[in-house]
Amino acid sequence: MILCCGEALIDMIPAPSGGEDGFIPRPGGSPYNTAVAIGRLGTPVRFLGRLSTDFFGEMLVRRLSKNAVGTDWIIRSGENSTLAFVKLEPGKEPAYVFYTKGSADSSLRPGDLPPRLIPEIRCILFGSIAMTMEPIATAIETLIFRENTPRGPVISLDPNIRPFMIRDRDAYVKRFEGWVGASTIAKISKADFDFIYPGLGLEKSLEKILTLGPRMALTTLGPEGARALLLKDNGTILDVSAPVVDLPVADTIGAGDTFHGAFLSWLEGAGKMSREGLLSLTEKELYEALFFANKAASLVCSRHGADPPSRGEVDALGL
After folding, report:
1. Residues 216, 229: contact at Cβ < 8 Å?
2. In which band, very low, low, confident or very high, does the pLDDT at 305 lie, cut at 50, 70 and 90?
3. 115, 237, 248, 304: which one has the fewest Cβ atoms less than 10 Å from its Cβ?
4. Contact 227, 238 (CB under 8 A)
5. pLDDT tens-digit profile of 28-68?
6. How confident is the model at residue 163 (pLDDT cuts 50, 70, 90)?
7. 3-state class of 14 per DSSP?
8. CA 74, CA 11: separation in Å to the nearest integer?
9. 241-255 confidence digits (pLDDT tens)
10. 8 Å CB contact between 230 and 286
11. Sign of CA dihedral 19, 21, 25, 26
């Protein structure tokens, strides 16, 4: 089972009507989208967070339940739901404006954490804007530091950085490197690297990440596919790339989240979701995991909004 931790919010998607600007509310948030993606792929998953009792919060919880995501560790509270207004322009990454002050999901506290995880939890996923807000950043940080033990679950980080949410870049990078050090897998996009290590370049950035402690560095490269570097016990690095699938692109909302969820789902389904299992991956297996994740991400890009595919849809692509 995979545990997704962090924000759950409402994406306000552009929907012009009658010549005027308009928006349609859609459930979202990086770890939330990833949980839905994992659930749709048929892998056991739970969500840990704090959600509002307002009607947006009801929408968020209802979608999780509909997609087989466990909601036992969701705390409900009276604060408003976070809103994220999205701007889409052809050929550009989606732009966002977040309304987060005093919101329910940002208010998760260390005292809200379960005192211990159930044995079925073999992976913890965290990251995104949750790690730029308090007290939720401290709460999740407390959880991953607590669970980072030799026999603990695989910990997978996706920073999914939104620079406008970060007031002190140097302080964020220092804290980020601590999270990387507590992670088994670090999934970092080229855009993330450009913010964290500007001018360093992809190769040296990936090398630096592996020196901080994780066993695997994953990076998504847009239309060029994805790449994984796995650090073995003997110090060698297994370096594998896989392509995307050539499908029409509607938008890229939720693509990275779906990729991350699909990659972890493949590991869980293949019996590789453990620290030992990760190290035993062969080149062929790692390619299969990457390509499976790329197929899922390509499918979500062919649709509007974060609408992850089912396992059947991914398998039907064949290739």
Report:
1. yes
2. confident
3. 115
4. no
5. 999 999 999 999 999 999 999 999 999 999 999 999 999 99
6. very high
7. strand
8. 19
9. 999 998 998 888 889
10. yes
11. positive
The β-bridge partners of 17 are 20
128 alpha-carbon distance from chain centroid: 7
Q: Side chain identity at 217, as an amino acid letter?
A: A
Q: Residue 257: which residues within 8 A CB-CB, separation 6 or more? A: 30, 31, 33, 34, 37, 158, 160, 306, 308
Record the pTM: 0.95
CA angle in degrees (0–180, nearest 5) for 176-101-22: 105
pLDDT value for 88: 77
**Domains located in the chain, CATH noted:** 2-6+28-79+106-316 (3.40.1190.20)
Total residue count of the chain as it appears in this document: 319
Query: Is the CB of residue 3 less than 8 Å from the CB of residue 295?
Result: no
Distance CA 16, CA 97 (A): 18
Mean pLDDT of the chain: 94
> 186 phi and psi, to 5 degrees?
-120, 110
- Residue environment code for 14-29, b if the CB has 16+ CB neighbours within 10 A, otherwise e: beeeeeeeebeebbbb
